[in-house]
Design a protein that fits this description.
This protein has 13 helices and 21 strands. By secondary structure, it is an alpha/beta fold. The radius of gyration is 23 Å and the shape is globular.
């Protein structure tokens, strides 16, 4: 439906200045949000500091790294109400495997992707290792990040079959020596116990990462630490780790399976696929769901399942349906635009806002179709530019050759993700949204996408992605909710000033203007 001769009151509610005498056609969308129709609880939204945290946290000048930490973790606003950061509620900390100590002989090409280990070959621990990673995890804690998550890409190199942090044989089985399973899980437990004593509690420990990849490379050509694992090997390491955590009276839970693609969670024919059925079915001999420290959570990565709207939606429907069948929550625990899905058929470079909108679209579908209870971006920062093809990161780095200093630029990805991470706080519930235009999920993916969340105490958060090139008037019908009388919007668009830009406080009731190609969060209080 089209409207014209807009009233001044409506224009004020839009928060946009128009000539009231002009004939202005604006697309309209009405959504109904019924507080009694809740879906999953969202526990956290976060990111990883893998690889590049070490150099920044250890060497970069204080003012620069402090600013990066503020951008990632702060929940504060400036005098105009504009956020200073995106308030991540989870931070992923990499427990290194010792390839940094091996230097060039590690076989990993880029020195920045080698990681130190707290455990020396002689069995002693050096808690001064990974100083840069530690700086960031301590900053996360100081900013009040609610969930610290530790993960490991490889067992310590002294425990691996080839003495390296990656595989040299393409056999799709673990690089961990047969007699070192307990040694590996004792190491992980010691790390958790140490940081617990320092007041840095890891809510979760993830001992296995992307087990479906072979992680094999000739020495000197590897890109990072990594190891494959079969489902039977995962069962073995999880069982050992659960026992170690119990022995040490720790409360950290085990996060698994960190599937390399979401499809591996419910389909496939290899020894590391169909992970939900293999690891959580009551009839399975390698069931891990009965282990004390394993919560009813299955984690998967959204890489390579983003090429086309049908794929995005159908894969996540399958994840949601399979997880529900086995009584599990689904966590999306790693994503960046590794594949070319973000190009959406377009040739040439994609602008910063195009990438940001695609990132928001992926978060939206994981939450609304996949029913994800957590959502994590892979890398917070990487070397690159901030204007085009910002597919891998929130903050673009321009480091010096030694990686001891550098410059950084904030991308639109940071603020687009912030539309979710800053406002959808831990333990808020998603509310089902009904719309009056009858568009199905597939058509919504190229139109306006809307999701809503509540804390049950009078706070309502609505996130709207306007994927179109038209202004849209969004009308909200609210029911069975403690209705706030006022709201504020936070807008991220291509405009230089629209980085979660806050509107003045407005009275509830009128429609909200969604700028073309933008993400808008509406917060009712």
């Amino acid at each position: 439906m089209k409207i014209s001769h807009l009233t001044l009151a409506t224009l004020f509610a839009f928060g946009t200045v128009f000539n009231v005498r002009a004939q202005t056609a604006i697309k309209q969308l009405t959504v109904t949000i019924d507080g009694s129709k809740t879906a999953q609880t969202v526990h956290n939204i976060g990111a990883s500091g893998c690889w590049f945290s070490e150099g920044i946290g250890k060497y970069w000048p204080s003012a620069k790294r402090e600013k990066i930490a503020e951008l990632l973790f702060s929940k504060q606003t400036d005098a105009q109400g504009n956020p200073k950061g995106i308030g991540l509620s989870a931070w992923r900390f990499n427990i290194g495997g010792g390839t940094a100590e091996q230097g060039d002989s590690s076989g990993i090409v880029d020195f920045r992707r080698r990681a130190e280990s707290f455990l020396a070959p002689d069995g002693t621990y050096d808690w001064n290792k990974q100083a840069g990673y530690q700086w960031f995890v301590r900053k996360a804690k100081s900013y009040g990040v609610e969930n610290l998550i530790a993960f490991s890409n490889t067992p310590p190199v002294q425990f691996t079959k080839n003495g390296r942090g990656f595989k040299t044989e393409k056999d799709y089985i673990s690089n961990l020596k047969e007699d070192k399973y307990d040694a590996y899980t004792k190491f992980l437990t010691e790390v958790i116990k140490h940081f617990d004593k320092e007041g840095l509690h890891f809510s979760y420990i993830s001992p296995v990462n992307e087990p479906q990849w072979d992680w094999s490379n000739p020495p000197g050509k590897a890109s990072q630490e990594g190891s494959p694992w079969t489902n039977a090997e995962i069962h073995r390491v999880i069982k050992s780790l659960s026992s170690e955590l119990e022995k040490n009276n720790l409360s950290t839970k085990i996060l698994t399976t960190e599937a390399a693609m979401l499809t591996y969670l419910y389909s496939g024919k290899t020894a590391s696929t169909k992970q939900i059925q293999q690891l959580y079915a009551d009839t399975s001999k390698i069931n891990i769901s009965r282990l004390k420290f394993v919560p009813p959570v299955v984690a998967g990565h959204s890489y390579f399942t983003d090429k086309g709207d049908s794929t995005i939606i159908n894969v996540r429907k399958n994840v949601a349906d399979t997880a529900k069948k086995y009584g599990l929550e689904y966590w999306q625990s790693e994503y960046s635009m590794l594949d070319d899905g973000f190009r959406e058929g377009e040739k040439g470079r994609r602008s910063a806002i195009d990438c940001a909108l695609f990132l928001a679209k992926m978060i939206h579908h994981d939450l609304t179709v996949g029913n994800a209870s957590a959502w994590h971006l892979w890398n917070s920062y990487e070397p690159g530019g901030a204007e085009f093809d910002t597919r891998y990161y929130l903050i673009a780095l321009n480091p010096n050759k030694e990686y001891t200093d550098g410059e950084f630029t904030v991308t639109k990805n940071l603020w687009a993700m912030g539309n979710y991470s800053l406002f959808v706080r831990p333990e808020m519930k998603r509310i089902a949204v009904e719309r009056n235009d009858g568009l199905d999920f597939y058509k919504q993916a190229q139109d306006v996408m809307v999701s809503a969340y509540t804390n049950g105490k009078g706070k309502l958060v609505v996130v709207a992605i306007n994927y179109t090139r038209d202004n849209t008037a969004l009308k909200l019908n609210l029911s069975n909710l403690k209705k706030g009388s006022t709201y504020r919007t936070y807008v991220t668009s291509a405009a230089a000033e629209d980085n979660l830009k806050a509107s003045p406080v407005q009275k509830a009731g009128g429609p909200v203007n969604l700028k073309p190609r933008s993400v808008t969060t509406i917060v009712f209080n």
